[in-house]
Amino acid sequence: MREILKLFLVVALFGMFSGGILAAVRGSTQEKIDFQQLKFVKGPVLQDLFKEASNDPLTDRFKIMDDKEEVTCFVGVFDGTKKAVAIEGFAGGYGGAIGVIVAIDLENDQIMGIGVTTHSETPGLGSRAKDDPAFARQFRGMTMKDLFKITAEGGKIDALSGATVTSRGVAGAVQSVSEMYRRLKPSIMEKLKDKA
Hints:
Blueprint: H1 2-49, E1 61-66, E2 69-78, E3 81-92, E4 97-105, E5 111-118, H2 128-131, H3 133-137, H4 164-195
Antiparallel strand pairs: 1-2, 2-3, 3-4, 4-5
């Protein structure tokens, strides 16, 4: 009985020690991982959406709380004015969650552009949502009051051929950003004033 108790204590101590080491490693590398994801996953999309901006949206960003979730808002400065924000939203696609960044004009609440950041969609079919500019262009000019759905569901977005579920997922991610933006716009405007 004593041997079993000793063995149990050794395993428990080893588990606690290993868990502590793993937590320390994760804590020390999390900031680097977040920076890499920001720079290499979201960065290219943001640079494309805000290519006319006079600032770097990767560095000119702030976080805001939406209920219990922290949301990052990327700021676009045009003609010396903080004219736009970009927010990332997620929805389910064929292969899993699809991440979409939506750039929004703060003056008229219109979409300036969208870009897919992350997906696990089928290569050559659903993956075209990230690479097909004609698909993304459909969202440009729509307002945050619009309903983002594909035409098969009564919306205005033409689905990619052979990738209806992916198209629905992208539209759903844009819809989630729209709902988030409408809830947070007063707080976003207040934050932008504070950063001036």
